[in-house]
Amino acid sequence: HGGGKEATIEPLKDHLSHYEQRMANLFGAGVQACYRGPRLFDAPETKAIVDRWVDFYKDHRAILDSDVIHIRRPDGQDFDGILHVNPAIEQKGLLMLYNPLEVVIQKTVKVPLYYTGLSDKAHISHEGKNEDTYELSRDYSIDLEIEIPARSQTWYVIK
Asked: What is the SS3 assignment for 75?
């Protein structure tokens, strides 16, 4: 933006959706960032966002610190997604999906699970709830029905 007020999201409390998306992008990618600035939050609402995403990272640290497979390259035209994988731990995968669009994205996504070490079945929960079992295809993938709210994100744990 060339600087100025267009290049900042201060005060944070006035830019909650942007701030939350940034936190989701960083923590969902497993980034342990060094945050610069005078503070991480400036109101109870921004503290709640920080708490939510720090808790998410702590709960899923082992898989978020594991290898990453890009499911779809970000191009601003559709969802983008990354799959964290590690066959040596309980959470074999964590799928992070992002929606940059102004509309909800609903579709079926082919998720490659070969590098999770799973061979027959995958137990998948959406944001920690409602675990379902999926049979893996011969190419070690599943077809996952997804819904990502507009300008937001969602995630799935794979065991």
From this structure: coil
Instruction: List, in sequence order, every residue forming a beta bridge with 107; answer none if it has no partner.
Output: 146
Return the ∠ at Cα 40 (arms to 38 and 43), rounded to 5°.
100
Residue for token digits 């100025």? 4
* 25, 38, 52, 98, 159 from 139: Cα distances, Å: 29, 49, 35, 25, 18
DSSP class of residue 122 equals E
CB atoms within 10 A of CB 34: 4
CA 35 to chain centre: 19
Structure tokens at 113: 């699970």
pTM: 0.92
Q: In whole angstroms, what separates CA 99 from the centre of its chain?
A: 10
> Do 133 and 123 contact (CB within 8 A), yes or no?
yes
Triad 83, 25, 77: Cα angle to 5°: 80
Give 47: exposed, middle or buried? Use CB within 10 Å, 0-12, 13-18, 19+.
Answer: middle
Phi, psi of 12 (to 5 degrees): -55, -40
* Low-confidence residues of the chain: pLDDT under 70: 1-2
- Answer yes or no: are the C-beta atoms of 84 and 97 closer than 8 Å: no
